[in-house]
Amino acid sequence: MRTHLAWCIGVAVVCNAAGAGYDPLVTGPKAQVIDLDIRINDDREIPVRIFLPADSEPAPVLLFSHGLGGSRETSNFLAAHWASRGYVCVFLQHPGSDVGVWRGKNPAAAMEALKSAASARELLVRIGDVKGVLDGLTRLNASTSDKLSGRLNLDRIGMSGHSFGAMTTQAVGGQRGGRPSMPRSEADPRIDAALPMSPSPAKGVDAEFSFGEVGIPWLLMTGTEDGAPSGIVDIEPSDRLKVYPSLPAGEKYELVLDNGEHMAFTEGRMRFQKSSQNPNHHRVILATSTAFWDSTLRGDQAAGKWLREHARTVMEAGDRWQWK
With the C-alpha atoms ordered 36, 40, 46, 49, is the resulting torsion angle positive or negative? Predict the structure, then answer.
């Protein structure tokens, strides 16, 4: 009852806010969905699912990287909403850390396979996937015979991902790796804004070193119960809160969903979840992410004002929201 009441109150308040000129939950026409493979080198193809907006004008591009054991079909509720708002959404699938790792195996074997895939090597492969897909999209956009010809505004690119996909997003979005004496960066200068869902700090490395020089807007999303599947990686909900304080000021945001579990950013429910999804969580995720993209990739001042002054109106009392 409390959740339903809060949802109803939130709808009313958002409608009032929208009356002032901006509502991130309003949707437009459904997008066209295109599944294809993008070859990034001689021996690697990346399956992608592209949501192409109805408008034929060149549109900003949003990339999404799934979590461990996921696919290009993971979290497509995000793409449906973002694309209806005029973004070309490209959801990647990473062979080697995707659904193929566990599918067809018994539970014990699947767990071992997932644990093995949650590696630094696979993270580097994923980073290469993102850069290779961006190269591939550039080729498709320049082609005169492809459905994507001239449809992509590659001067405005956002990157998002969940869990292992959040780590991928952090890496290409400006997180430094290595050690202070031997720093390295996998940042891709083509990415203009990043949205990691269930972020992770680098183990054994000072967070200020890792995140202190991030130069683009970031929106972090997590939950108070956002741990990780037991037996695969060792991370607690409190670990995910270590990233935001280390980011420099300037279009940096953090959303913490009250009782939000690890799978709050996907569809469905996994065996290790303690409870069913709170329906308002997806609503908050869609609203804040859309306003973030509109503000940072389109320069929409009304969206930026909404993030600072009205974002709380879609949230429940226990949700936390901050920016700097």
Answer: negative
Three-state SS at 220: strand
Q: What is the pLDDT of residues 57-73, one digit of tens each?
A: 999 999 999 999 999 99
Contact 285, 265 (CB under 8 A): yes
Query: DSSP state, 271?
Result: T
148 vs 66: CA distance, rounded Å: 22
Contacts of 317 (CB under 8 A, 6+ apart): 6, 258
Query: Which residue range(s) make up the domain with 97?
Result: 24-323
Does residue 3 sit within a domain? no
Q: Among candidates 290, 278, 286, 289, which has minimal Cα distance to 316?
A: 278
CA distance 66 to 154: 21
Residue 228 burial by CB count (10 A; 0-12/13-18/19+): exposed, middle or buried?
A: buried
12: exposed, middle or buried (C-beta count within 10 Å: 0-12, 13-18, 19+)? exposed
3-state secondary structure of 9: helix
Among 228, 227, 130, residue whose Cα is nearest residue 170 = 130
What is the distance between the alpha carbons of residues 217 and 252, in angstroms, rounded to a whole number? 6
Domain assignment present for residue 129? The answer is yes
Taking the complete model, does pTM exceed 0.85, yes or no?
yes
217 close to 296: Cβ distance less than 8 angstroms: yes
Instruction: Tell me: pLDDT of 203 over 90.
Output: no
Domains in the chain, number: 1
Reported as a single tens digit per residue, the pLDDT across 242-278 is 999 999 999 999 999 999 999 999 986 554 445 567 9
Phi/psi of residue 223, nearest 5 degrees? -145, 160
Burial classification of residue 93, based on how many CB atoms lie within 10 Å of its CB (0-12 exposed, 13-18 middle, 19 or more buried)? buried
Of the listed ranges 29-33, 102-106, 158-162, 266-270, the one predicted with least confidence: 266-270
* Phi/psi-derived region of residue 86, left when phi > 0, alpha when psi is between -120 and 50, beta in every other case: left
Amino acid at 267: E
Domain assignment present for 183: yes
